[in-house]
């Protein structure tokens, strides 16, 4: 646990909290000790608040729906289990013999649960500011600005991309065709007067999104996982 505290850059005043965070329910049941499930419950909320606060300030022009989608990617099981592996948490979890034999140390669900419990332990031990600092440190790779931009919708991604160059996209209506009950809208997106993408869709928004994605594809921009 000394190594883990070093990697987290946080020293526990009450190390028992970290011990509980690393104790699987199977071990707790076998040895009648407290396990991580209550901490996991709290840690889920602490993590969501911390990530929400970060995204709110880091992406000031991004709408609520997109922020929600980016946050979901950052707090999902797959992401948290990867973070736990980077921190070497698997080898520290206290498991029952049966759970150990079944590969529990590398199960994504267990690693993600323990990661949330560790965040809760930091919160209870040092408060929300320390918890946010540790969470940002642990998720540093995932919170990198380029990674965040890759996870936005196409219009937001294009805007972020062009804003870095002091430019802004402009969407221009081209035409609408088809029956009134199911029209197809055509839009194009321009930058500095030049057409950089075109798209069509069953709504104006869908057509603009397609035009933005077309522009990003032309630029060779990455897609969100």
Automatic annotation (TrEMBL):
Organism: Candidatus Pullichristensenella excrementigallinarum
Description of how the protein assembles with itself and partners: Homodimer.
Top-level taxon in the UniProt lineage: Bacteria
Needed cofactors: Mg(2+)
Active-site annotation: 44, 116
Gene Ontology annotations for the cellular component aspect, listed alphabetically: cytoplasm
EC number(s) per entry: 3.1.26.3
UniProt xrefs under InterPro entries: dsRBD_dom, RNase_III, RNase_III_dom, RNase_III_sf
Annotated Pfam families: dsrm, Ribonucleas_3_3
Record flagged with keyword Kinase: no
SMART domains, per database record: DSRM (SM00358), RIBOc (SM00535)
Residues annotated as domain DRBM: 153-221
UniProt-recorded name of the protein: Ribonuclease 3
Name of the coding gene: rnc
Assigned protein family: Belongs to the ribonuclease III family.
């Amino acid at each position: 646990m000394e190594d883990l505290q070093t990697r987290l850059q946080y020293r526990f005043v009450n190390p028992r909290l970290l011990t509980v965070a690393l104790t699987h329910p199977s071990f707790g049941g076998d040895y009648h000790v407290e396990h991580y499930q209550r901490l996991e419950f709290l840690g889920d909320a602490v993590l969501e608040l911390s990530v929400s606060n970060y995204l709110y300030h880091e992406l000031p022009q991004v709408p609520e729906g997109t922020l929600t989608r980016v946050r979901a990617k950052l707090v999902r099981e797959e992401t948290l289990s990867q973070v736990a592996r980077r921190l070497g948490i698997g080898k520290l979890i206290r498991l029952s013999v049966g759970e150990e034999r079944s590969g529990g140390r590398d199960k994504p669900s267990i690693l993600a649960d323990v990661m949330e419990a560790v965040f809760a332990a930091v919160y209870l031990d040092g408060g929300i500011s320390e918890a946010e600092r540790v969470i940002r440190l642990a998720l540093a790779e995932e919170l990198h600005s380029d990674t965040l931009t890759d996870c936005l919708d196409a219009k937001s991604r294009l805007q972020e991309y062009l804003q870095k160059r002091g430019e802004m996209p402009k969407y221009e209506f081209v035409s609408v065709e088809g029956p009134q009950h199911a029209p197809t809208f055509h839009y194009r997106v321009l930058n500095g007067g030049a057409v950089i993408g075109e798209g069509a869709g069953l709504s104006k928004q869908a057509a603009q999104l397609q035009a933005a994605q077309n522009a990003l594809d032309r630029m060779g921009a990455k897609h969100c996982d």
